[in-house]
Amino acid sequence: xxxxxxxxxxxxxxxxxxxxxxxxxxxxxxxxxxxxxxxxxxxxxxxxxxxxxxxxxxxxxxxxxxxxxxxxxxxxxxxxxxxxxxxxxxxxxxxxxxxxxxxxxxxxxxxxxxxxxxxxxxxxxxxxxxxxxxxxxxxxxxxxxxxxxxxxxxxxxxxxxxxxxxxxxxxxxxxxxxxxxxxxxxxxxxxxxxxxxxxxxxxxxx
Length: 206
Ligand SMILES: Nc1ncnc2c1ncn2[C@@H]1O[C@H](COP(=O)(O)OP(=O)(O)OP(=O)(O)O)[C@@H](O)[C@H]1O
Ligand SMILES: [Mg+2]
Known about the structure:
It is built from six helices and eight strands, in the order E-E-E-H-E-E-H-E-H-H-H-E-H-E. The chain is α/β, with parallel strands linked by helices. The strands form three sheets. Strands 2-1-4-5 form a four-stranded antiparallel β-sheet, covered by helices on one side. Strands 3-8 form a two-stranded parallel ribbon. The structure holds adenosine-5'-triphosphate and magnesium ion. The site of magnesium ion has 4 residues, from helix 1.
């Protein structure tokens, strides 16, 4: 499902080159739950941004669900959902409208986007907030909306950056029918993920 080879990203800031990710190899199979751990600045967000086509790698390759992130970014995006580390919603959009708009951006018909939005509002217990604007939501409610947006187009796989930040642990499962098996619940996962440890490139190797 994910195959990355020698994935590298450098940033140039003024005269300084920051190597955020160096030579990352990654193989993740369909159905796996994987947690990428590491200290601040280890390159987790940069990796996710490369795997989700938001940032071109400086070198290396990444194939996501059979699509090369550089050669076929549109094909990749159709198959993935992405919940970024920051908020992904506009302050002044109403919750349900935001979901429908995002669905339309993925090419869903109006009726289909409405149906899917209502399904996700129920699954993430956002129904009572459907007509509220994002700016009126609590941090946790807003984070749940982020997760709903990541699932709107029924992605094959879901990338979550710092998924549990701001989310309380919840027993409430999200049915595989809704999430496509991407996640079983929100908040910390109920089953143990495979963990991958990233270390900052500035740390000595060994
Ligand atoms: N646009 C950018 N320009 C310059 N440097 C950047 C840029 N984005 C990230 N970096 C640098 O790359 C390194 C990795 O950053 P990244 O955000 O990927 O880390 P992270 O593991 O997600 O950290 P955190 O746990 O704090 O979210 C850091 O040193 C960061 O300063
Ligand atoms: Mg980060």
